[in-house]
Amino acid sequence: MLLVLDDQHKEHLKFLNNLDSAVMREFCKLSIEFLQKGSNPKLYQTAAQKLRVDAEMVQHAIEGIMYLITEAVKMGLSDLELKDSMISIDLPEIIQEEIMQFHSSRRHDVRKELSGLSTAYPHYHNLKWRLDVQLATRSLRHQTTPLIMLKLELIQDEKVKSLLLQIDPVNLIHMTEVLDQALKESKLQHCRRIMRHIK
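Given the sequence above, the corresponding structure tokens read:
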């Protein structure tokens, strides 16, 4: 699998052609700091003065490196696949090696940072249920109305939240059929490809 880069991203990364390996290593460190702490214009200004270029070019280059690495980590690219993806940028061999070394050494750190950035959704913890059947009322003596009471427990931020739900069997069967269909569709090749890109 290859990472496809748009023209603007390629343009930002072309600035790296003018750098030596030591400066490239520093840019890689700055890109990790960008992911962890956000943008730091003072550092970009200092680096731009040393290189005698515009601070915006330095910022775009660092953001470009971080985008390249994060996308490679999200897609689970190997070093060889990353190298093949960088062919379209026309970077020197030394710069490509630095990016690949950075990718292989910091892959787990980047994955950890990305997982920390994702939104924490509530997830299933426990489910308790009870079947209630109303056999008759004063006006309707031969009526049966089954209802299912559900107590759904969800965990979010290590806190358990309980939801009480009441549903009739017909709607419950319909819900299970829809969820079963969604589960089957999630196992299709097309859905797996989309989910790989979302992660």
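Residues 93-117 form the longest helix (25 residues). Try to locate this feature in the token string yourself.
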